[in-house]
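Write out the 3D structure for:
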Amino acid sequence: MVKLEFLKISAAGNDFIVFDNRKKIFNTDHQEDLVELMCARRYGIGADGVCFVELSDVADYRTRIFSGDGNELDFSSNGVRASIRFANEKEVAGNTQKIETLSGVVDGEVDDELVGVSVPGLKKADLRCELEIPHHFDNKVIELAYIDTGFTHLVLKVGKVAAFDVKGFGYMLSNHTRFQPKGIDVTFYDVIDPHNMNVITFEAGVNGLVNSSGNGIVAAHLVAQKRQETEGAVIAHSWGGLLKVFDKNGSVNVEGEARVAYSGHITSEMMSFDIEKVRKRQLI
């Protein structure tokens, strides 16, 4: 029976399966079904995504990050932070790292469980993006923000995140016809004070709410900053814990816990599951 080692890493409640793929055990150009299978809870390992740490010519290593639906991501703040922790644990890189991603080379730092990463620069910010929504919601047109920093997000400020229908609105906005076929991540936030905010994200890749989204927190931070609702370093409160967002050397940085939950092996038995049957059972 073939066994392949991995680490399961929780980056502020956003969990990733991370592999050392420097020897090209996996062909990451053709692993969509396997990624989806590994992320399937009850049938695979169960996670929000999978990261493959690979060799790089321009950085300490390259990480390729896939969401739970098998799609590759240009960038994931928590996925990169999980990769940074993995690389440090496996001595691929030290406490200060350079990481190649599809959005460019970013900087990482490790201090035990505390892991920080720089985020690619802002490409586009539309603070007055209008969307027509289904008639069974209160308004036929709502105004929200659209952010692109190598990853795209819709951002909506609400009165209280805890009291808002983030699941219903998140599903509707993420699956809006304008953003098909892949959908779009949707982040909701409210401001506690100039240095604290509540944030929750509905991720297209898992088609549901996640405990924490580093990308979503960055998107909310950029919107709140442009609206002059926050200032300086901000602590984002999410279901998965706290993440600090701050400017450093001209880049936005995200810092928070990234804990190794456990190590394990995937087996040829798990990889032999029929992905179509698993997909159907996941819908039950």
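The helical segments are 32-39, 77-89, 166-174, 214-226, 268-271, 275-282.
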